[in-house]
Specification:
Largest sheet: 4 strands, antiparallel
Strand order of the largest sheet: 1-2-3-4
Structural class: alpha+beta
Helix content: 40-55%
CATH architecture of the largest domain: Roll
Number of strands: 4
Number of helices: 3
Number of domains: 2
Distance between the termini: 82 Å
Amino acid sequence: MVNTKSSAQSHTSHESHVSHGSDEPRESHDACAESTDTEGKDDVAENRPGPMEVLRQARGQLTELTGMTAESVSSFEQTQDGWSLEIEVLELARVPDTMSLMASYQVDLDPDGQLTGYRRVRRYERGRADPHRSGGR
C-alpha cells in the first residue's frame, strides 16, 4: 500500500508541475535527455583505465610478450587511437650494471589499455648518455 501512495504522490507532483502551462516541463525534459546522453559518455569514460593503470598494464603486457624486464616509462601520451608510450627495457644484464644493455620500445595501446603493437626504437648501454637528445652535449 505504501508503494501505491508513493506513486500517487509522485504522479500528483508531476501534474502540478505540468499545470503551470509554461514550456518549463519541456525544457526540464530536454535537460534530462541531455543529462542522460552526457551520463552515457561519462559511463564509458569511467570504464576506461586511468593513466596510472595504463602504465602498469603496458609494462606488464610488454614484459609478458618479450620476456624482458620493463624498467620504466620514459614517455607517455594519450592519442586519438588510444595511448602511446616509450618503455625502457633491460635486454641484457651485465656487471657492472652500468654496462647492461637497455632498449627503448615504442608501445601502442587501444583506449582500454590493451597492447596493439610495439617495436624497439633504440638500444644503448645503461651508463651512456644519449648525445643527440636535447640538453645533452
